């Protein structure tokens, strides 16, 4: 079924349910604000672009989603591919690639391709996710340590060499802010999990930079003041050569958006006993990735951590996600200039913690206990993700995984671990 959950929700919607959704939406917005800014910066874009993505993409996904509680926005999984596209083709090229990815997702939703997620081997998802986490972590070393390395290469080994060459420029102030922010996030999540942890940690770290006059870069010092309003839509330049050149990136973006949103919907269903509609979910991702880039936004998908936060905060309908987007819009309109004071090492700390969460070190012992063929598949996907190319990693991992399943004669191409 391709019917959005919002239409079902409005049949018996009530004021008590709206109050619960509104509070949940505000809570999620407080989590999303620093995260969206950090993801946009790490992707090679500007902080404002991350907020635009959360506002427009998040609203469209909630309004058309096949899940009652899905929260959409930019996510860490896109950082690597987005950074690469921007470096090679510019922001206009990213807009073209994202629109094409949206069209691919709409086609996939129309043909009910959401069920095909069961064909993606779990070791491929795990290896790919850990690889993305490693890339994100390394990409934050420059700001986290305050290194004066200039523009570092995109590839992993040259990037590590450039960062090592700049080790003498390490800033104790930046390192101290990063370490303090990470410690605050981890401790507050343990002691006060219901508080807006990211806002508190980043806010206090940025205030410390301001009050103590620390020599640390901020959003304002590097990117200038944020605009106080949404940009006008802009249609990118399309040529046959550009479309062909960007097609692999478009398929990668579509794959990431589809898989992450469906996994997020599955996780959410298990948290509150819901049941999402895969085809409607893919259509929602498609609509969002067609419209959002027209306003200069990044690729968008269902965000697992923000969706889980929504469920834990009491969100039970798509209204919560729509409120989340509207709250971020209100911040941009009223208090966007405050974002300029955010310390970049504090935002780097947010992404370092995000990378740690993505890697899920608590599951590494389970990974090591996998059958040798599945462990090899996980490691191969990880290595290809980090040192080769995302498209190659996905293609080789899925193809090899299905081949191994066929070769072992288990009678099915489905991978059904307990957390899928």
TrEMBL record:
UniProt main location, coarse: membrane
Record protein name field: SLC26A/SulP transporter domain-containing protein
UniProt membrane topology term: Multi-pass membrane protein
InterPro entries registered for this protein in UniProt: SLC26A/SulP_dom, SLC26A/SulP_fam
Keywords noted in UniProt: Membrane, Transmembrane, Transmembrane helix
UniProt-annotated location(s): Membrane
Pfam families per record: Sulfate_transp
Organism whose genome encodes this protein: Sphingopyxis soli
SLC26A/SulP transporter domain: residues covered: 18-378
Record field: transmembrane: 21-42, 48-64, 71-88, 94-111, 123-142, 162-188, 195-214, 243-268, 326-355, 375-404
């Amino acid at each position: 079924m391709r019917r959005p959950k919002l239409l079902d929700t409005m049949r018996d919607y009530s004021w008590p349910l709206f109050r619960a959704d509104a509070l949940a939406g505000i809570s999620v917005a407080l989590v999303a604000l620093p995260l969206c800014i950090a993801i946009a910066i790490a992707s090679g874009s500007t902080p404002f672009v991350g907020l635009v993505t959360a506002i427009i993409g998040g609203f469209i996904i909630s309004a058309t989603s096949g899940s009652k509680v899905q929260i959409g926005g930019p996510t860490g999984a896109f950082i690597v591919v987005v950074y690469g596209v921007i470096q090679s083709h510019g922001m206009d090229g990213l807009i073209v690639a994202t629109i094409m990815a949206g069209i691919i997702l709409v086609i996939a939703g129309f043909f009910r391709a959401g069920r095909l997620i069961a064909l993606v081997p779990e070791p491929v998802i795990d290896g790919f996710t850990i690889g993305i986490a490693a890339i994100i972590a390394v990409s934050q070393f420059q700001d986290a340590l305050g290194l004066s390395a200039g523009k570092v290469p995109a590839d992993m080994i040259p990037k590590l060499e450039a960062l090592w060459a700049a080790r003498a420029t390490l800033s104790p102030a930046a390192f101290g802010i990063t370490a303090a922010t990470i410690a605050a996030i981890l401790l507050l999540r343990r002691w006060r999990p219901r508080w807006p942890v990211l806002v508190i940690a980043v806010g206090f770290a940025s205030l410390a930079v301001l009050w103590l006059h620390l020599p640390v870069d901020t959003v304002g010092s590097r990117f200038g003041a944020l605009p106080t309003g949404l940009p006008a839509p802009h249609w990118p330049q399309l040529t046959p050569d550009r479309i062909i050149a960007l097609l692999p990136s478009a398929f990668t973006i579509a794959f990431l958006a589809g898989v992450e949103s469906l996994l997020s919907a599955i996780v959410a269903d298990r948290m509150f006993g819901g049941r999402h509609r895969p085809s409607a979910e893919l259509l929602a991702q498609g609509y969002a990735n067609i419209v959002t880039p027209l306003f200069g936004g990044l690729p968008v998908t269902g965000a697992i951590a923000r969706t889980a936060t929504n469920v834990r905060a009491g969100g039970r309908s798509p209204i919560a996600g729509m409120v989340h987007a509207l709250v971020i819009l209100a911040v941009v309109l009223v208090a966007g200039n405050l974002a300029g004071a955010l310390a970049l090492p504090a935002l780097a700390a947010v992404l370092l913690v995000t990378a740690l969460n993505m890697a899920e070190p608590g599951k590494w012992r389970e990974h090591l206990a996998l059958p040798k063929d599945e462990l090899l598949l996980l490691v191969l996907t990880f290595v290809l993700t980090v040192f080769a190319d995302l498209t190659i990693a996905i293609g080789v991992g899925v193809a090899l995984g299905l081949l191994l399943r066929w070769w072992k004669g288990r009678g099915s191409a489905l991978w059904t671990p307990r957390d899928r």
